[in-house]
């Protein structure tokens, strides 16, 4: 990525973290029921027929997996379970999935069909099976032998080191190893492991009818303001928070993650005041905690605020130009995240100034974010055509329009149109400020797709809003590079710094820091010609999957000769679970995700529309 234009990477998609429930206890894996015969438990299928576990057992072994179609950790394991089922189906091993949920049997069957699960899937009514196995997490796997004695319980593999946090490599196939050892007549080496996923939320506490803090009067307004834009049907959140029952199901997690300020997601710990800060006030935190501690009373529905009207209409009204991907893109159920670029010809016969844009994914469940670029030379079209002409491999899972490219669009673009992530609010740039969009240009949108365990389709649109007259201030990117050649292996706190000066007066509207997988922390500061340094943004806990552009509440007026500094710290040791190399290896500067970068991107304008270019020595 030799150049990144201004872009917005809002992280509301990581509100998915909310869906992960509670960690299993850290005092070691449960060994409950190991070596004992599991009681027979009955279920009703979608047709109302009763089936028992013992009727479903395999000749030599049975794998029982507790799943949740609302838990992203659980659904991410669907391809792994399908592959295991394929490998062991003819070896006397049966697979059964049990869903401890409030949905009826027909809904569970419908969801199982969507994920193309070939083995039986039942609703675990009133947690009968979960209690029989002492299961607490989805996904959690249990292996019983031919006599239905429990021989293994725990995780499927070690893909995750924490909820929604994947290891860069899967090095232990725990369930597969237990199956192989059992079928070989051996003792199972590690019969219990700690599963990571979503807590099975048994209803064990009687809910209060009323109290000093109630859902309808006190909690519902907070959820509307901070959560429901993502946590509603069809949006990126894997579960909804629109009703009392839904909020009660996640009450303990609401308290835990808001008290620790992990939710709503907001990374800066220092800097200027930003627009749309996703921070709960202390009074809101206290309200949520008091509601949970008080038994989560419902209260009087008459006290509820009017429900939010979520509409599919454009946020700023009808755009002046809507660009749509030519046809649906097919995204496979499993594999690494995909970066796909779509070329959208504008067909413009004259130059335009774009004051606002809105990206609308066809399928927000799988779109993590987009970056929007401008191409005036048809280079994206050539890359798309090359992808179309490429001989296809048999059974390719990802196909359709566009071409795949990580860390950019494969060429140096002529400009940018920001970016998008779930929850982002469309807004106009400041008065007389715009992105410049030349005539006959293409918009190339790079989409970051994350997979959800089933085959999905997406057809994206972007709406553009034009200025009525040419804008004198063109929104542009000012880059502060951190300078390095490589990050040595074995260093836990490797520091990289860089500076850039401006040689003219300008206005800074936004800041976006950028690193890759080894990043720990990053800070951007500005020092005027005469005066102390000022922190623009400081992120103490960097996450490559949690980036965004931060717009200042009040734009910053910067004098010629001001210096911008970036300081970043990297962890290139085995203690970094995101380290792409095992064992750690020197990592060079480069475009690939497994390379590293260090940049600060500023959104800048000048009053006369002239270009601001970074100087890497102090101007004389």
Can you describe this structure?
By secondary structure, this protein is an alpha+beta fold. It contains 11 helices and 34 strands. A hairpin with a 2-residue loop joins strand 9 and strand 10.
SSE layout and pairing:
Elements: E1 42-44, E2 50-52, H1 53-56, E3 61-66, H2 72-76, H3 78-88, E4 93-99, H4 105-114, E5 121-123, H5 128-133, E6 137-138, E7 140-145, E8 150-154, E9 160-162, E10 165-166, H6 174-183, E11 198-199, H7 215-226, H8 244-249, H9 251-259, E12 268-271, H10 282-293, E13 321-324, E14 329-331, E15 338-345, E16 352-360, E17 367-375, H11 379-389, E18 403-404, E19 415-420, E20 433-437, E21 442-449, E22 456-458, E23 461-466, E24 473-474, E25 476-481, E26 486-487, E27 494-501, E28 506-514, E29 519-527, E30 534-539, E31 550-558, E32 563-570, E33 587-588, E34 599-605
Parallel strand pairs: 3-4, 4-5, 20-24
Antiparallel strand pairs: 1-2, 3-7, 6-11, 7-8, 9-10, 12-30, 13-23, 14-22, 15-18, 15-21, 16-20, 16-23, 17-19, 17-21, 25-34, 26-33, 27-32, 28-31, 28-34, 29-30, 29-32
Question: What key phrases describe this protein's structure?
Answer:
Glutaredoxin; five-stranded mixed sheet; 11 helices; alpha+beta; Jelly Rolls; 4 domains
């Amino acid at each position: 990525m030799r150049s990144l234009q201004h872009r917005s990477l809002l992280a509301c998609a990581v509100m998915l973290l909310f869906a992960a429930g509670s960690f299993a206890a850290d005092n070691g894996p449960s060994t409950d029921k190991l070596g004992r015969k599991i009681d027979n438990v009955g279920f009703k299928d979608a047709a109302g027929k009763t089936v028992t576990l013992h009727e479903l057992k395999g000749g030599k072994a049975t794998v029982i997996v507790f799943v949740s179609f609302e838990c992203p950790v659980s659904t991410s394991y669907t391809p792994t379970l399908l592959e295991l089922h394929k490998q062991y189906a003819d070896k006397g091993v049966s697979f059964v999935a049990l869903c401890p949920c409030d949905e009826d049997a027909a809904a569970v069957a419908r969801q199982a069909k969507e994920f193309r699960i070939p083995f039986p899937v039942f609703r675990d009514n009133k947690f009968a099976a979960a209690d029989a196995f002492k299961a607490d997490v989805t996904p959690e796997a249990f292996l019983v032998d031919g006599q239905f004695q429990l021989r293994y319980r725990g995780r499927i593999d070690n893909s995750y080191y924490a909820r929604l946090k994947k290891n860069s490599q899967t090095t232990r196939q725990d369930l597969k190893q237990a199956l192989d050892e059992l079928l070989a007549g051996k003792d199972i080496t590690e019969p219990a492991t700690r599963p990571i996923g979503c807590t099975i939320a048994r209803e064990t506490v009687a809910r209060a009818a009323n109290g000093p803090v109630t859902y309808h009067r006190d909690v519902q307004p907070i959820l509307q303001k901070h959560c429901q834009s993502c946590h509603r049907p069809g949006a990126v959140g894997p579960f909804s928070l629109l009703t009392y029952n839904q909020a009660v199901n996640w009450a303990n997690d609401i308290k835990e993650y808001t008290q620790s300020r992990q939710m709503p997601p907001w990374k800066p710990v220092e800097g200027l005041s930003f627009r749309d800060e996703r921070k709960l006030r202390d009074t809101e935190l206290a309200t949520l905690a008091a509601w949970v501690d008080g038994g989560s009373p419902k209260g009087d529905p008459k006290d509820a605020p009017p429900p939010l009207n979520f509409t599919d209409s454009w946020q700023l009204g009808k755009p002046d130009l809507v660009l749509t991907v030519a046809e649906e893109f097919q995204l496979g159920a499993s594999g690494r995240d995909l970066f796909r670029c779509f070329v959208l010809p504008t067909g413009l016969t004259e130059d335009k100034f774009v004051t606002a844009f809105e990206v609308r994914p066809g399928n927000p469940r799988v779109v993590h974010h987009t970056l929007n670029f401008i191409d005036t030379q048809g280079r994206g079209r050539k890359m798309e055509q090359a992808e179309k002409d490429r001989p296809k491999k048999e059974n390719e899972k990802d196909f359709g329009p566009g071409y795949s490219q990580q860390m950019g669009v494969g060429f140096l673009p002529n400009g940018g149109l920001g970016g998008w992530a779930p929850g982002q609010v469309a807004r106009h740039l400041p008065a007389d400020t715009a992105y410049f969009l030349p005539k006959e240009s293409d918009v190339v949108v790079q989409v970051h797709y994350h997979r959800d365990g089933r085959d999905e389709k997406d057809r994206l649109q972007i709406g553009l809003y034009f200025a009525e007259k040419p804008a004198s201030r063109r929104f542009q990117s000012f880059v502060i590079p951190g300078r390095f050649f490589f990050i040595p292996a074995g260093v836990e706190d490797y520091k990289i710094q860089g500076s850039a000066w401006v040689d003219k007066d300008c206005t800074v509207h936004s800041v976006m820091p950028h690193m890759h997988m080894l990043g720990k922390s990053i800070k951007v500061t500005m020092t005027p010609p005469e005066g102390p340094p000022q922190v623009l943004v400081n992120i103490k806990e960097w996450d490559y999957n949690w980036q965004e552009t931060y717009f200042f509440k009040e734009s910053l007026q910067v004098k010629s000769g001001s210096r911008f500094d970036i300081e970043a710290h990297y962890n290139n040791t085995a203690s970094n679970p995101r380290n792409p190399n095992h064992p750690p290896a020197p990592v060079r500067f480069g475009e690939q995700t497994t390379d590293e970068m260090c940049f600060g991107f500023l959104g800048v304008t000048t009053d006369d529309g002239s270009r601001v270019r970074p100087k890497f020595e102090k101007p004389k």
